[in-house]
DNA sequence: GGCTGTCTGTACGGTATCGTACATTCAAAC
DNA sequence: GTTTGAATGTACGATACCGTACAGACAGCC
């Protein structure tokens, strides 16, 4: 595998010392992830772990009788598979590609080997796992108490942080599943944000027009989570 | 510190090889935890970690403008502080004593030292941390979709599993905070469970009268979580 | 035995969202 | 250019729960 610049788009990889990075990249494959791809299933073994470069992955929790609901987002700042640190090869949640793009893929066994030899990788994954734990607790309370409009704004901001442009593709239907609400509730909330000039959208293409405004509308959960980003 | 039988009430400790256990117990102090004690605060450093013997601890996530809400329960099957594995000395959630009783207390630094020398302890903590991660995702969806009655039944069952009797002490007010609902909603839901002969209660003393019946009323989230218990 | 504070029962208007249905708009395919 | 399907707009009764208020019941204290 080539170790060219694009791999540095992933912050976790970019943070590795060169020797560790090159060793890790030897086990990685460049893959293109398509919208809707399912990368792992809740309570089933991971097949691969992924370091997103431009792709965006949603973690989703599911339950009988309801469509899976979004609980976290993973982009180039992190990776899918941090829970492999935790003495289990099972995925705690489903992982779905919410933004098509490139990622580095590594087998579970290769990742585990790399962990033994790369203390920096281990440390980074630990930090991100901590962040996920804090975030999941926060999301529970957020989902319970905050209204659709604020939660929608939060999800759009989290996506924007991981997108590489001021626009991306998500339908109301998809967002409704993420937030665990009716599609029509998303349409109404989106309409308000559009009216306010904060976002624009048409047939799945969403534009972030006024980030500061969106942050004002979003619940504090968005900022609370950002504060946990290392550095 | 004495290494008498009572310490084996904690499953995590009981599972250690004798040498590792005795070494760990040297750093532990027997403490009595009182109802309502706050053992750590969300996003603040842990002072101590705790291995409950008979005490029960609630993990609670909080947010401005709302009372903290329960997201998990810790009893003799586990410990408070598993996230110390994750390269951070901060607690992801608040921890409150929901059932008075005994626990073993250990300082963060002593625990970290013990981790280096006890691979079994490390492994157990990793497993429980995985379980917590899965549980937090599950709880998010549960809180969103399941009704108060089912969630109340789930919480009572989780408490019962960690209590050492068929009765324990929790007021409607306290349960309301745990579930993130109004106190009056808990009174109504409890009334239904009492009518059905599943539980009894009076002035804070709750009796589990029909466990199987409660399990039938509780959402599947209760069983989903139990399946993750090692063994 | 009466007082007091806590716990529980109950009521009731208000509201966010549900669940569902149907109309409209637009992009792409034919 | 027309058809088709997906995406979006809108409506509306139903419902679970909110927020609040107040009354009753019980335990402990003086």
Task: Describe the model.
With 231 residues, chain A is an alpha+beta fold. Helix content of chain A is 43%, strand content 23%. The first copy, chain A, has helices spanning 11-14, 18-26, 108-117, 119-145, 148-162, 172-179, 183-195, 211-217, 221-226, and strands at residues 29-33, 38-40, 48-52, 56-63, 66-74, 94-99, 101-107, 167-169, 199-202, 205-208. The first copy, chain A, has a four-stranded antiparallel β-sheet. Chain A has a three-stranded antiparallel β-sheet with strand order 1-7-3. In chain A, helix 5 (148-162) packs across helix 7, helix 5 (148-162) crosses helix 8 (211-217) and helix 6 (172-179) crosses helix 7. The longest helix of chain A has 27 residues, at 119-145. Chain A is globular, with a radius of gyration of 17 Å. At the A-B interface, strand 4, strand 5 and helix 4 of A face strand 4, strand 5 and helix 4 of B. Chain A binds a DNA duplex (30 and 30 nucleotides) through residues 147-148, 171-173, 181-185, 187-188, 190-191, 201-204.
